Amino acid sequence: MRTPLIAGNWKMHKTVADTVKYVKELRLLVRDVTGVDIVIAPPFTALHAAAEASRNSHIGIAAQDLHWEREGAFTGEISAPMIVEAGAAYVIIGHSERRTLFGETDPSVNRKLAAAFGAGLTPIVCIGETLDQRERGDTFGVLDRQITQGLDGITSEQVVQLVIAYEPVWAIGTGRNATAAQAEDAHGHIRKRLQNWFGADGAERCRVIYGGSVKPENIGELAGQPDVDGALVGGASLDVKGFVEIVSRSRGAAV
Ligand code: 13P
């Protein structure tokens, strides 16, 4: 049985002060919520403050990216051990914005994944097709390529720790979410591939969450699908009450 995961990806939003205020409110609002893992991903500058403000709560903290080296001459980059020291337990890897705007590739996703596992972080690896790729009938081909290259070399023990976020690019920030049937179709395919490559146990235990215009109104139906194990929420996670609404409407949550 997979515990659902709801993660808020704040992208480039919120200062340290905003973060502390949000986390204080969030921890009160989710105090009695069980049956769902709750994660927020603030910008790097607010990671430590978020970790401090969430101490002794069941809120997990994620970084939004990492560099694969431990240290070195990589101006502007942040390594896995630095993220761990800041107090985060998760890291998002290969978000479509990183891929499209900052040249992230499947091989770089793969190196980052190894670094995350090496430091004991739980990776949330994002995959998903563009509208053009979907319309060409290439959705599964794209997902297969991103999985094969991105997850190359990881073991069936590691896949159990991994979170995959299926985020169709056309659904991100557009207000147009995948329908529950489209999401289940993709998630079912991803799980089948995981089964081929990592065996039944790994595929059964790896969480595959959905991202792309998730909001309180659609989370119930999306997370109600058998292969949808929660959500990676962008815009709707910025408002703490809306995010809590999403958490409590997700499958498995008990308030
Ligand atoms: P939106 O929820 O704003 O569509 O963003 C999704 C996303 O990119 C989460 O990583």
Give a quick account of the main beta sheet: strands, pairing sense, barrel closure: 8 strands, parallel, barrel
Average pLDDT taken over every residue: 97
Helix/strand order, N-terminal first: EHEHEHEHHEHHHEHEHEH
CATH class group: Alpha Beta
Total number of domains: 1
Give the number of helices: 11
Shape: globular
Q: Please name the CATH architecture.
A: Alpha-Beta Barrel
By CATH's scheme, which homologous superfamily applies? Aldolase class I
Distance between the termini: 19 Å
Account of the 3D structure:
This protein has 255 residues and is an alpha/beta fold. It has one domain: Aldolase class I (TIM Barrel, Alpha-Beta Barrel), CATH 3.20.20. It has eleven helices and eight strands. The chain has helices at 16-29, 47-53, 80-86, 96-102, 106-119, 131-135, 139-150, 156-161, 180-205, 216-223, 240-249; strands at 5-9, 37-41, 59-63, 90-93, 122-127, 163-166, 207-211, 230-233. Strands 1-2-3-4-5-6-7-8 form an eight-stranded parallel beta barrel, surrounded by six helices. The longest helix is centred in the last third of the chain and has 26 residues, at 180-205. It is globular and about 45 Å long.
